[in-house]
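Annotators were shown the component list below and the corresponding predicted structure, then asked to write short factual statements about the assembly.
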Amino acid sequence: MQMSQLVFKSLRESPSEAEAKSHQLLLRAAYIRRLASGVYSYLPLGLKVLSKVSQIIREEFDRVGAQEVLLPALHPLEIWESTGRAEKMSDVLIHVETKGGSFVLGPTHEEAVIEAVHQDLSSYRDLPAIVYQIQTKFRDEPRSRYGLMRTREFIMADGYSFDADQEGMRSSYRKIYEAYNNAFGRIGIPFEAVEADSGAIGGDVNHEFMSPADIGEDHYAKCPQCDYRANIEAARRRVAIPAILKNLDELPEMSFHYTPDAPGVDIAVEAITKLGVPLTAAEMLKCLVAKDAAGNLFMLLVPGDREIRVPSGLTLLLDDEFEQFPFLYKGFIGPMSAQTNGMSVIADYSVAAKMIFATGGNKAGYHVSGAVLGRDFDVDEFQSLVVVREGDPCPNCGEPLELVRSVEIGHTFQLGLAYSSLLPQASFTGSDGEQYPYFMGCYGIGVTRLIAVIAEHFSDEKGLCWPVSVAPYEVVVVPLGASRSAEVQDTAQSIYNELLGLGVETLIDDRKLSPGVSLADVDLMGIPLEVIVGSKSLAEGCVEVKLRSDGTVLKVGLVDAVSLVTERLRKLK
RNA sequence: CGGGAAGUGGCGCAGUUUGGCAGCGCGCAGCGUUCGGGACGCUGAGGCCGCGGGUUCAAAUCCCGCCUUCCCGACCA
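Structure shown to annotators:
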């Protein structure tokens, strides 16, 4: 490709809207252009990268036996109503009214894929099957940001597996897990698979693939000692529970304190301390009330200095929901007699370790101190209920955990029967002639987000710096002063032709520009290998081969130039 | 949805305080001189100053309303 023909013009300064490095560079080097907030066009260079990333993912899906399909982006509203997700995911759904009825733009494709394949997977003989697509998704993000990082329209590679039983599902899951590791490995970015929370999609075991990055919006806990890795939303910590519990008889009585204007933990601690009972936030019991889908109430107990991690399946009560329960005094809730009021009590393990707490008095304006586990309140179940912090003990080995800022680039779910149990058509006939629901899995890679992550990771002060696996071109030939020197012109042209002839994806900067501009543009663009042809080195019978990633330049004789380039390319791959 | 900042030629910005010819740098077009790391001279094109209303002899500038964009937070398969 001749750069004079390429739809490309670099920007010397980045548009003020761009904050993240990847966003700035992708705009400056003419890979993408913004159409609206969180909506981007891919220019020729951007599309080349997108195609390469997609192709790697495609090959790895294919390698484990998944079959590519293409599902619609436009979904009849009814299929979303059929699983209740028109309601559940209403925040992100973009609605489209047409002469033919109400539609939504697909943010994900569980319903659509079932509609697409269930006729063809109607017998146990048809299973297992994995299909995938690489397609545009639409989500009405409340806050798109960081260029391709979080957008309202983005491309995802999403796979769906269909199995006859749980063991089959696990086996399909392992295949995709492997495919993901291979795909991210080929691209060459750092990543780790971590245990994850299943969130709104629901289901059983799942993993997130995280890539550490400064612009990451997620954190995961990592144990430096063992292989424990978990998303902050799923991470647990170890709590040591003393073997000998305190003797109840020797403990102080529970006493009430009048703390009228002290609903939160911090001000309650202050108020109670002022009343002559010194206290820290850690000695306070934070009591939150949540409900499950069936409307059952749960009281969740964590130490006052910790943030709660709400178990999946539960949601905290909203303000107006509190009013439905006269025994709940918001800001003054305590665990005493929770069971009598129909609540199950779930406490963090650390509650069992400490046993004595100050907490809400279950009366407006009152707190208590000296509430003792097993005497003044009871716990139905202990769990790890707090959001882990840097330094918390690893649940496996007890070493202090580290928190890593990262970007979610992929997610794999074992859905089990979560969707197939809701949709009668999501079933097959077993060998006994009965109908059974599919055991499903679903898997997603944010392809366009990946581009942002790659750009973020592979860039320096000069610009982008793509790994060969996804670079828009492998080599760029840069003649310096070609308009003044027929020799430079001819040499560059013949190297270019020769590389093209060998099937190397090559670009030549045939624009009539001064050398500084040309070299700066080419660096900004981030092509892995630059072949610089100038009169100075030509006088010695040489050209220069520059490795963009580390800036090293190798002078090489004319006759060896092409073979050196192809050899270096081979090494880089 | 809450808090903050900003919208002036393709990009970056000044001008708004104190109303009075719409400017600068980059980019773009032409000519010439340059030429191994974003060169220079001359000439030129390109603007509904986000949109709508109001005040005024006069509005980029003051007032009211709206829209858009970005940042922080809430949210997030």
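Statements collected:
1. Chain A has a mean pLDDT of 91.
2. The longest strand of chain A covers residues 402-416.
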